Amino acid sequence: MKKILRFLLGLLAIPIAAVASRSLYGQLALVSDLGQDQLYFLGGVGGYLIIHSLFYKPSYFYVVGHELTHVIFTWFCGGKVRSFRAMPEGGEVTTTKSNFFIVLGPYFFPFYTVLVCCVYLGAFLFFGAYEYVSQFIFLVGFSWAFHVVFTAHFIKMKQPDILRFGTLFSISVIYIINLAILVFILSLLFAEVSFLEFVKDSSRQTLNFYQYLVTGLLL
Prior knowledge:
Layout: H1 2-28, H2 37-55, H3 59-76, E1 81-87, E2 90-95, H4 100-108, H5 111-127, H6 133-158, H7 167-189, H8 195-218
Antiparallel strand pairs: 1-2
Helix pairs in contact: 1-7, 1-8, 2-6, 3-4, 5-6, 5-7, 6-7
């Protein structure tokens, strides 16, 4: 019975993830006058998936970013880092403090996507690099896909407690949270992107979907 309930929770989470993805797609269309930046984002996502599937899985770079995020969250929470180790198969950071944000932060914080955003922000402030916004959106999609793919992989390997509600449900929720964080970051860079509108649109579309589903089941 528990397995069935977990599976049903996973199925219920999939439409929410799909709706949130669609809302992000709509927000990206507003970034520039061309209205095609969402295609660059999808190109970045697809580009990474092709590289990951056919050519190279950059696990070491993910581990480095993952462990550095532990370090950042430790410093942010007032702790100190005693040791740092990163290898392709995994890493370890020894700290003087531990809490929810320090332990689980790397799974929800897209380190390299934030790094790409910081580089773009610096280039924009000092060099006026707005004409390269499409290339930036491509790199955002590429780095974000890299983060999500490896996050799902490492959670399944090393964090079975996170999956206690079922793999499908847990991965879907983690995906949605990562998506929301991405939109929030982009809203800080572009006035056209609205995190509040993203939440409203996602909630409205999700509600419409489930209303349609329930109505269809009752008829």
